[in-house]
Amino acid sequence: MPLNYQRGLDSMHESARRLVAGYVIVSLGILLAISGGTWDVTNHLLNKPETFFSPPHAALYSGTGAALAGAIIVISTSRATKRTDWPAKLVLVGISLLFAAGPIDFAWHSTFGLDGLLSPPHSVLVSGMVASSMGAAIGIATAYPSLQCKAPPLPLITAAILPVWLSAAGAIHMFSLPFSKTGFYDFNPDPLAGAILATIGFPVITAAVMAASSTLFGRRFGAATAIASSFILVGTLTSILPNDALWSTIPLYITAIVPLACADAILSRWKSPYSVLVAGAIIGLAFIVLYYPLITHTYNKELQKDRTVWASLTALIYFDMLGTVFLLVAVPAACTGIVGAVVGHRMAQRAQLAVLK
Description:
Blueprint: H1 3-45, H2 55-80, H3 86-112, H4 120-143, H5 154-174, H6 191-216, H7 223-240, H8 250-254, H9 257-269, H10 274-285, H11 287-290, H12 295-303, H13 314-356
Protein backbone atom coordinates (compact mmCIF):
# COMPACT_ATOMS: atom_id res chain seq x y z
CA MET A 1 0.00 0.00 0.00
CA PRO A 2 1.53 3.38 -1.01
CA LEU A 3 2.65 5.50 1.95
CA ASN A 4 0.67 8.56 0.83
CA TYR A 5 -2.50 6.47 0.53
CA GLN A 6 -2.04 5.10 4.03
CA ARG A 7 -1.46 8.58 5.38
CA GLY A 8 -4.65 9.72 3.69
CA LEU A 9 -6.62 6.92 5.32
CA ASP A 10 -5.12 7.70 8.72
CA SER A 11 -6.02 11.37 8.28
CA MET A 12 -9.60 10.49 7.35
CA HIS A 13 -9.96 8.21 10.37
CA GLU A 14 -8.55 10.86 12.69
CA SER A 15 -10.96 13.46 11.31
CA ALA A 16 -13.86 11.06 11.75
CA ARG A 17 -12.81 10.36 15.35
CA ARG A 18 -12.65 14.07 16.10
CA LEU A 19 -16.04 14.67 14.50
CA VAL A 20 -17.68 11.85 16.46
CA ALA A 21 -16.06 13.09 19.68
CA GLY A 22 -17.21 16.65 19.00
CA TYR A 23 -20.77 15.61 18.24
CA VAL A 24 -20.90 13.41 21.37
CA ILE A 25 -19.74 16.34 23.53
CA VAL A 26 -22.47 18.49 21.98
CA SER A 27 -25.07 15.82 22.76
CA LEU A 28 -23.91 15.40 26.36
CA GLY A 29 -23.86 19.17 26.81
CA ILE A 30 -27.44 19.46 25.59
CA LEU A 31 -28.41 16.57 27.88
CA LEU A 32 -27.06 18.50 30.88
CA ALA A 33 -28.66 21.73 29.68
CA ILE A 34 -32.15 20.28 29.17
CA SER A 35 -31.90 18.49 32.52
CA GLY A 36 -31.12 21.82 34.15
CA GLY A 37 -34.07 23.37 32.37
CA THR A 38 -36.47 20.68 33.62
CA TRP A 39 -35.07 21.05 37.13
CA ASP A 40 -35.72 24.79 36.84
CA VAL A 41 -39.39 24.15 35.98
CA THR A 42 -39.70 21.95 39.06
CA ASN A 43 -38.19 24.68 41.22
CA HIS A 44 -40.77 27.11 39.86
CA LEU A 45 -43.55 24.72 40.90
CA LEU A 46 -42.04 24.45 44.38
CA ASN A 47 -41.93 28.27 44.63
CA LYS A 48 -38.21 28.24 45.35
CA PRO A 49 -36.44 31.62 45.11
CA GLU A 50 -35.83 32.45 41.48
CA THR A 51 -32.71 34.25 40.33
CA PHE A 52 -30.56 34.02 37.25
CA PHE A 53 -27.74 32.58 39.39
CA SER A 54 -29.49 29.40 40.56
CA PRO A 55 -28.31 25.74 40.56
CA PRO A 56 -30.63 24.72 37.67
CA HIS A 57 -29.37 27.66 35.62
CA ALA A 58 -25.81 26.66 36.47
CA ALA A 59 -26.48 23.16 35.11
CA LEU A 60 -28.20 24.62 32.07
CA TYR A 61 -25.41 26.97 31.11
CA SER A 62 -22.65 24.50 32.04
CA GLY A 63 -24.26 22.17 29.53
CA THR A 64 -24.34 25.00 27.03
CA GLY A 65 -20.63 25.59 27.59
CA ALA A 66 -19.88 21.90 27.03
CA ALA A 67 -21.97 21.94 23.87
CA LEU A 68 -19.97 24.96 22.68
CA ALA A 69 -16.73 23.07 23.23
CA GLY A 70 -18.05 20.16 21.18
CA ALA A 71 -19.21 22.52 18.44
CA ILE A 72 -15.74 24.09 18.26
CA ILE A 73 -14.23 20.65 17.72
CA VAL A 74 -16.78 19.87 15.01
CA ILE A 75 -16.36 23.16 13.17
CA SER A 76 -12.55 23.19 13.40
CA THR A 77 -12.37 19.61 12.12
CA SER A 78 -14.79 20.38 9.31
CA ARG A 79 -12.75 23.38 8.22
CA ALA A 80 -9.54 21.37 8.35
CA THR A 81 -11.04 18.86 5.95
CA LYS A 82 -12.52 21.73 3.88
CA ARG A 83 -15.94 20.15 4.19
CA THR A 84 -18.66 21.47 6.48
CA ASP A 85 -21.66 19.15 6.29
CA TRP A 86 -25.14 20.35 7.15
CA PRO A 87 -25.26 18.58 10.57
CA ALA A 88 -22.29 20.74 11.60
CA LYS A 89 -24.10 23.83 10.34
CA LEU A 90 -27.21 22.82 12.27
CA VAL A 91 -25.13 22.43 15.44
CA LEU A 92 -23.62 25.87 14.87
CA VAL A 93 -27.06 27.44 14.49
CA GLY A 94 -28.28 25.69 17.63
CA ILE A 95 -25.29 26.75 19.73
CA SER A 96 -25.70 30.34 18.51
CA LEU A 97 -29.31 30.30 19.70
CA LEU A 98 -28.28 28.84 23.07
CA PHE A 99 -25.78 31.61 23.69
CA ALA A 100 -28.17 34.27 22.47
CA ALA A 101 -30.69 33.00 25.03
CA GLY A 102 -28.29 33.70 27.93
CA PRO A 103 -28.21 37.52 27.80
CA ILE A 104 -31.86 37.61 26.73
CA ASP A 105 -32.80 35.53 29.78
CA PHE A 106 -30.69 37.71 32.09
CA ALA A 107 -32.31 40.88 30.73
CA TRP A 108 -35.78 39.31 31.07
CA HIS A 109 -35.18 38.36 34.70
CA SER A 110 -33.76 41.79 35.44
CA THR A 111 -36.81 43.48 33.96
CA PHE A 112 -39.68 41.20 34.93
CA GLY A 113 -38.28 38.99 37.71
CA LEU A 114 -40.13 35.68 37.53
CA ASP A 115 -40.56 34.45 33.96
CA GLY A 116 -43.05 32.00 32.52
CA LEU A 117 -42.23 28.78 30.73
CA LEU A 118 -43.33 30.10 27.33
CA SER A 119 -41.27 33.28 27.18
CA PRO A 120 -39.03 34.75 24.45
CA PRO A 121 -35.74 33.68 26.10
CA HIS A 122 -37.05 30.18 26.77
CA SER A 123 -38.31 29.89 23.20
CA VAL A 124 -34.86 30.79 21.88
CA LEU A 125 -33.25 28.39 24.35
CA VAL A 126 -35.41 25.39 23.49
CA SER A 127 -35.05 26.06 19.76
CA GLY A 128 -31.29 25.97 20.21
CA MET A 129 -31.48 22.71 22.15
CA VAL A 130 -33.60 21.05 19.49
CA ALA A 131 -31.37 22.22 16.63
CA SER A 132 -28.11 21.32 18.40
CA SER A 133 -29.24 17.88 19.55
CA MET A 134 -30.63 16.98 16.13
CA GLY A 135 -27.48 18.17 14.37
CA ALA A 136 -25.30 16.20 16.78
CA ALA A 137 -27.37 13.02 16.43
CA ILE A 138 -27.29 13.19 12.64
CA GLY A 139 -23.61 14.05 12.71
CA ILE A 140 -22.81 10.99 14.82
CA ALA A 141 -24.83 8.79 12.47
CA THR A 142 -22.99 10.10 9.39
CA ALA A 143 -19.46 10.32 10.82
CA TYR A 144 -19.30 7.05 12.76
CA PRO A 145 -19.27 4.71 9.70
CA SER A 146 -16.06 6.43 8.55
CA LEU A 147 -14.34 4.78 11.50
CA GLN A 148 -14.95 1.46 9.71
CA CYS A 149 -16.42 -0.03 12.85
CA LYS A 150 -19.47 -2.22 13.22
CA ALA A 151 -22.83 -0.88 14.37
CA PRO A 152 -22.56 2.02 16.84
CA PRO A 153 -22.36 0.81 20.46
CA LEU A 154 -25.44 1.21 22.65
CA PRO A 155 -23.99 4.02 24.83
CA LEU A 156 -23.25 6.04 21.71
CA ILE A 157 -26.78 5.59 20.35
CA THR A 158 -28.20 6.62 23.73
CA ALA A 159 -25.97 9.70 23.92
CA ALA A 160 -27.04 10.72 20.42
CA ILE A 161 -30.80 10.21 20.68
CA LEU A 162 -31.70 10.95 24.32
CA PRO A 163 -31.04 14.72 24.07
CA VAL A 164 -33.20 14.92 20.94
CA TRP A 165 -36.05 13.22 22.80
CA LEU A 166 -35.70 15.42 25.89
CA SER A 167 -35.48 18.68 23.96
CA ALA A 168 -38.45 17.78 21.74
CA ALA A 169 -40.47 16.85 24.83
CA GLY A 170 -39.44 20.15 26.39
CA ALA A 171 -40.79 22.02 23.38
CA ILE A 172 -44.15 20.24 23.68
CA HIS A 173 -44.28 20.96 27.41
CA MET A 174 -43.58 24.62 26.73
CA PHE A 175 -46.61 24.93 24.44
CA SER A 176 -48.98 22.80 26.53
CA LEU A 177 -48.31 23.56 30.21
CA PRO A 178 -50.15 26.45 31.92
CA PHE A 179 -46.97 27.94 33.38
CA SER A 180 -46.68 31.13 31.35
CA LYS A 181 -48.81 33.68 33.18
CA THR A 182 -47.08 36.32 35.31
CA GLY A 183 -47.95 39.76 36.57
CA PHE A 184 -46.62 41.26 33.34
CA TYR A 185 -47.96 38.95 30.61
CA ASP A 186 -50.09 35.87 29.95
CA PHE A 187 -48.64 33.46 27.39
CA ASN A 188 -50.56 30.43 28.65
CA PRO A 189 -51.83 28.20 25.82
CA ASP A 190 -55.53 27.51 25.47
CA PRO A 191 -56.23 24.57 27.84
CA LEU A 192 -57.92 22.44 25.17
CA ALA A 193 -55.21 23.19 22.62
CA GLY A 194 -52.54 22.30 25.16
CA ALA A 195 -54.22 18.99 25.99
CA ILE A 196 -54.58 18.12 22.30
CA LEU A 197 -50.94 18.98 21.61
CA ALA A 198 -49.79 16.78 24.48
CA THR A 199 -52.03 13.90 23.40
CA ILE A 200 -50.66 14.00 19.86
CA GLY A 201 -47.13 15.22 20.36
CA PHE A 202 -45.88 13.02 23.18
CA PRO A 203 -46.91 9.67 21.65
CA VAL A 204 -45.47 10.70 18.28
CA ILE A 205 -42.03 11.70 19.52
CA THR A 206 -41.80 8.80 21.99
CA ALA A 207 -42.68 6.17 19.41
CA ALA A 208 -40.49 7.80 16.76
CA VAL A 209 -37.47 7.85 19.07
CA MET A 210 -37.90 4.26 20.22
CA ALA A 211 -38.55 2.87 16.73
CA ALA A 212 -35.57 4.77 15.31
CA SER A 213 -33.35 3.54 18.15
CA SER A 214 -34.35 -0.05 17.55
CA THR A 215 -33.76 0.23 13.80
CA LEU A 216 -30.35 1.88 14.19
CA PHE A 217 -29.37 -0.91 16.59
CA GLY A 218 -30.24 -3.54 14.00
CA ARG A 219 -33.65 -4.39 15.51
CA ARG A 220 -31.86 -6.03 18.43
CA PHE A 221 -33.39 -5.87 21.87
CA GLY A 222 -31.93 -3.30 24.25
CA ALA A 223 -31.40 0.01 22.49
CA ALA A 224 -34.94 1.36 22.79
CA THR A 225 -35.25 0.06 26.35
CA ALA A 226 -31.93 1.66 27.36
CA ILE A 227 -32.93 5.03 25.94
CA ALA A 228 -36.36 4.84 27.60
CA SER A 229 -34.72 3.92 30.91
CA SER A 230 -32.40 6.90 30.58
CA PHE A 231 -35.36 9.16 29.89
CA ILE A 232 -37.12 7.87 33.01
CA LEU A 233 -33.96 8.37 35.06
CA VAL A 234 -33.67 12.00 33.96
CA GLY A 235 -37.37 12.56 34.71
CA THR A 236 -36.97 11.04 38.17
CA LEU A 237 -33.95 13.17 39.01
CA THR A 238 -35.30 16.48 37.69
CA SER A 239 -39.09 16.32 38.11
CA ILE A 240 -39.77 13.97 41.04
CA LEU A 241 -36.84 13.88 43.48
CA PRO A 242 -36.80 17.68 44.06
CA ASN A 243 -40.42 17.38 45.32
CA ASP A 244 -40.48 15.12 48.39
CA ALA A 245 -44.28 14.86 48.13
CA LEU A 246 -43.77 12.75 44.98
CA TRP A 247 -41.16 10.32 46.31
CA SER A 248 -43.75 7.62 47.04
CA THR A 249 -44.78 7.61 43.36
CA ILE A 250 -41.29 6.84 42.02
CA PRO A 251 -41.95 3.05 41.87
CA LEU A 252 -45.07 3.68 39.77
CA TYR A 253 -43.25 6.06 37.48
CA ILE A 254 -40.50 3.51 36.90
CA THR A 255 -43.10 0.93 35.81
CA ALA A 256 -43.48 2.96 32.61
CA ILE A 257 -40.48 0.98 31.38
CA VAL A 258 -42.57 -2.23 31.27
CA PRO A 259 -44.73 -1.42 28.22
CA LEU A 260 -41.78 0.28 26.54
CA ALA A 261 -39.59 -2.79 27.02
CA CYS A 262 -42.44 -4.94 25.66
CA ALA A 263 -42.56 -2.73 22.57
CA ASP A 264 -38.78 -3.10 22.19
CA ALA A 265 -39.16 -6.88 22.41
CA ILE A 266 -41.86 -6.82 19.74
CA LEU A 267 -39.63 -4.80 17.42
CA SER A 268 -36.68 -7.13 17.94
CA ARG A 269 -38.42 -10.53 17.95
CA TRP A 270 -41.31 -10.06 15.54
CA LYS A 271 -40.01 -9.23 12.07
CA SER A 272 -43.43 -8.74 10.51
CA PRO A 273 -44.17 -5.26 9.11
CA TYR A 274 -47.03 -5.14 11.61
CA SER A 275 -44.56 -5.19 14.51
CA VAL A 276 -43.85 -1.49 14.09
CA LEU A 277 -47.58 -0.73 14.22
CA VAL A 278 -48.22 -2.81 17.33
CA ALA A 279 -45.16 -1.44 19.11
CA GLY A 280 -46.15 2.11 18.19
CA ALA A 281 -49.62 1.66 19.69
CA ILE A 282 -48.18 0.31 22.95
CA ILE A 283 -45.64 3.13 23.19
CA GLY A 284 -48.32 5.72 22.48
CA LEU A 285 -50.50 4.44 25.33
CA ALA A 286 -47.60 4.61 27.79
CA PHE A 287 -47.14 8.37 27.47
CA ILE A 288 -49.65 9.20 30.21
CA VAL A 289 -47.27 7.66 32.78
CA LEU A 290 -43.99 8.50 31.05
CA TYR A 291 -44.62 12.26 31.18
CA TYR A 292 -45.77 12.32 34.79
CA PRO A 293 -45.83 14.56 36.85
CA LEU A 294 -45.91 17.56 34.49
CA ILE A 295 -48.69 16.06 32.37
CA THR A 296 -50.96 16.46 35.43
CA HIS A 297 -50.99 20.23 34.96
CA THR A 298 -51.84 20.00 31.27
CA TYR A 299 -54.96 17.86 31.62
CA ASN A 300 -56.09 19.37 34.91
CA LYS A 301 -56.25 22.79 33.26
CA GLU A 302 -58.81 21.49 30.76
CA LEU A 303 -60.78 19.08 32.99
CA GLN A 304 -60.81 21.18 36.17
CA LYS A 305 -60.20 24.76 35.09
CA ASP A 306 -60.63 26.20 38.60
CA ARG A 307 -58.54 23.61 40.47
CA THR A 308 -54.92 24.51 41.27
CA VAL A 309 -52.31 21.76 41.21
CA TRP A 310 -50.18 22.49 44.25
CA ALA A 311 -46.82 20.71 44.39
CA SER A 312 -47.94 18.71 47.45
CA LEU A 313 -51.18 17.61 45.73
CA THR A 314 -49.81 16.70 42.29
CA ALA A 315 -49.88 12.93 42.88
CA LEU A 316 -53.40 12.96 44.36
CA ILE A 317 -54.79 14.98 41.47
CA TYR A 318 -52.96 12.84 38.90
CA PHE A 319 -54.43 9.58 40.21
CA ASP A 320 -57.84 11.18 40.63
CA MET A 321 -58.09 12.04 36.95
CA LEU A 322 -55.96 9.22 35.49
CA GLY A 323 -58.90 6.96 34.63
CA THR A 324 -60.88 9.73 32.95
CA VAL A 325 -57.89 11.01 31.00
CA PHE A 326 -56.85 7.55 29.83
CA LEU A 327 -60.33 6.83 28.44
CA LEU A 328 -60.27 10.13 26.55
CA VAL A 329 -56.77 9.83 25.10
CA ALA A 330 -56.32 6.06 24.59
CA VAL A 331 -57.46 5.88 20.97
CA PRO A 332 -55.71 9.04 19.68
CA ALA A 333 -52.56 8.18 21.66
CA ALA A 334 -52.40 4.69 20.15
CA CYS A 335 -53.00 6.04 16.64
CA THR A 336 -50.41 8.80 16.89
CA GLY A 337 -47.99 6.32 18.46
CA ILE A 338 -48.35 4.18 15.34
CA VAL A 339 -47.65 7.21 13.15
CA GLY A 340 -44.58 8.10 15.20
CA ALA A 341 -43.21 4.55 15.09
CA VAL A 342 -43.59 4.34 11.31
CA VAL A 343 -41.93 7.74 10.81
CA GLY A 344 -39.06 6.93 13.18
CA HIS A 345 -38.47 3.52 11.61
CA ARG A 346 -38.39 4.90 8.07
CA MET A 347 -36.17 7.84 9.00
CA ALA A 348 -33.65 5.45 10.57
CA GLN A 349 -33.73 3.24 7.49
CA ARG A 350 -33.10 6.22 5.22
CA ALA A 351 -30.22 7.34 7.42
CA GLN A 352 -28.65 3.90 7.13
CA LEU A 353 -29.06 3.86 3.35
CA ALA A 354 -27.60 7.35 3.03
CA VAL A 355 -24.51 6.27 4.96
CA LEU A 356 -24.08 3.17 2.78
CA LYS A 357 -24.13 5.33 -0.33
